[in-house]
Amino acid sequence: MMTQLTRADFDHAMVPNYAPQAAIPVRGEGSRLWDQEGREYIDFAGGIAVTSLGHCHPALVKALKDQADKVWHLSNVYTNEPALALAKALTERTFADKVYFCSSGGEANEAALKLARRFAYNEHGEKKDKIISFRQSFHGRTFFTVSVGGQPKYSQGFGPIPGGILHAEFNNLDSVRELMGDDTCAIIVEPLQGEGGIIPGEQSFLEGLRALCDQHNALLIFDEVQSGAGRTGHLYAYEHFGVVPDILTTAKGIGGGFPLGVMLTTDRIAPAMAIGTHGSTYGGNPLACAVGLAALETIDTPEVLEGVAYRHQLLRNGLEGIGQRHGVFQEVRGMGLLIGAEMAPGYAGRAKDILNLAMEEGLMVLVAGPDVLRLAPSLVISEAEIQSGLDKLDRAVASFVAASASA
């Protein structure tokens, strides 16, 4: 009989690029998890906006089990029915005509950036290669995507970064105009910045990016890895703003917890990614696509999408109440079920302290940088689970304030 694995085994066997909590979850159902000792947790973290329908949703479990008895993997020498079905469903529901599958958001953004440069190269020549991104943005962990992302801490220490990448200020259109030119091939933007602090894009800003791209024959890329798949109350956030990108990336919630990334684009642009220009061994994996289709069809319903706004308001009201009672938050912001509470100046840089105390109370939350507590629960989390989670968070914040006062 194998001895029980512990958190100490992580330190022994794993590369130390993560610092996980001591508790090890072993079972999940809906928005609840249980650890090795049987302790229950309310999940406001959602695997960082991944478990969009909670843990072990029946529709996703059925799709996975059904496909597991058929075919698991083929390689891209062949296609498969789940991939074709998911591609068809995505193009029917979005602006896109064409789909590229991979396994993560970073891979989807890598593909989007390569496609944008290849398209510009084919259409305009090698000098049109500049990519404009935004400070505090996050687009993945490949070397290209961390270089494009606007947080230097993720690329420092790995050698020279790729050239032709410029960074403007989010929600500041003038800062983009200063960098924009006929050598710009693309602008990549999160319509709702995630890791940068849960900051929604302003309507005029996103509209202005679309206009600048049109003016300079550049492509507009929306990174909806975190904001997509129903997270904002629309299937994709671009629908909320009425600003249509040329390329869109989606991952996280589209797989409901199964690794899946997708790049969406149009018939005009897709031919630049010709045979042999790019690939992904696991892209279009039948298991992933079967689960992804089940997630998409479950999320893209009035019941789920309209329910996001109601749940948003419950969480916002709860966070604002906690902030007022304890004086810890200076602003609550976000869209749908991606919500951030920014720490008050007296508690700046200490959001993770609340994360740790919340875990002790039986609640899983996230941070978005050192100053923002982040919530990204299931899109179908129950009202009772929301209230239970808020009560746990209230106790955690009370402990945080008391410890701060006695320090």
From TrEMBL:
One Pfam family in the UniProt entry: Aminotran_3
Residues that bind pyridoxal 5'-phosphate: F138, D223, E224, V225, Q226, T281
Gene Ontology CC: one annotated term: cytoplasm
Catalytic activity: N(2)-acetyl-L-ornithine + 2-oxoglutarate = N-acetyl-L-glutamate 5-semialdehyde + L-glutamate
Co-factor note (free text): Binds 1 pyridoxal phosphate per subunit.
Coiled-coil zones: none
Source domain of life: Bacteria
Annotated positions binding N(2)-acetyl-L-ornithine: R141, S280
Enzyme Commission number(s) from the entry: 2.6.1.11
GO molecular function list: identical protein binding; N2-acetyl-L-ornithine:2-oxoglutarate 5-aminotransferase activity; pyridoxal phosphate binding
Subcellular location: Cytoplasm
CDD domains: OAT_like (cd00610)
Keyword terms of this UniProt record: Amino-acid biosynthesis, Aminotransferase, Arginine biosynthesis, Cytoplasm, Pyridoxal phosphate, Transferase
Pathway: Amino-acid biosynthesis; L-arginine biosynthesis; N(2)-acetyl-L-ornithine from L-glutamate: step 4/4
Database matches in InterPro entries: Ac/SucOrn_transaminase_bac (IPR017652), AcOrn/SuccOrn_fam (IPR004636), Aminotrans_3 (IPR005814), Aminotrans_3_PPA_site (IPR049704), Class-III_PLP-dep_AT (IPR050103), PyrdxlP-dep_Trfase (IPR015424), PyrdxlP-dep_Trfase_major (IPR015421), PyrdxlP-dep_Trfase_small (IPR015422)
PTM-bearing positions, type N6-(pyridoxal phosphate)lysine: K252
Record GO biological process: L-arginine biosynthetic process
Necessary cofactors: pyridoxal 5'-phosphate
Note: May also have succinyldiaminopimelate aminotransferase activity, thus carrying out the corresponding step in lysine biosynthesis.
Subunit comment: Homodimer.
PANTHER family assigned to the protein according to its UniProt record, in alphabetical order: AMINOTRANSFERASE CLASS III (PTHR11986), SUCCINYLORNITHINE TRANSAMINASE (PTHR11986:SF113)
HAMAP family for the chain: ArgD_aminotrans_3
Family the UniProt entry places it in: Belongs to the class-III pyridoxal-phosphate-dependent aminotransferase family. ArgD subfamily.
UniProt name for this protein: Acetylornithine aminotransferase
